[in-house]
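WARN no homologs supplied; continuing
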Amino acid sequence: MKKVLVVLLMAFIIIQFFPIDRENPPTNEGMDFLTIKNTPESTATLIRNGCYDCHSNETKYPWYTNIQPVAWFLKDHIDEGRKELNFSTFATYEPKRQAHKLFEAAEMVQTGEMPLDSYELGHPEAQFTKAQRNEIIKYFKKVEGDIRLEYSLPAEEVK
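OK structure emitted
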């Protein structure tokens, strides 16, 4: 049993030499969702607090991202989140994709899928009240509707 613990400790120490890259990609304010959509400040704060760490190029890496394998898990999650929806590059999306992503985002906030429970544990500012969730949902749906109207896109059907 002692040998197993020594091996596990050695492995834990060795993996600390393989840190994640915590450098964010460059940002361009002119492509950011909150900027291009002139988001009201109170709503922008909520979206930043609950979405931007995983869904933008403005990730704030907490202290525990210095510890492997936790950091590997978080980095994978951040990479996947940016791939799915990146608010920092929102202006580069085609209008149809913008509308679809906002439809999905509203749905995920409404069902409680986002922000993730695991994210909320370490980020109390992302633990939204029902009113705050409704503010985000209403805003995402409004902007989605504006995009659909401007580009004559059909409404999404709720599944």
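The chain has a mean pLDDT of 95.
OK
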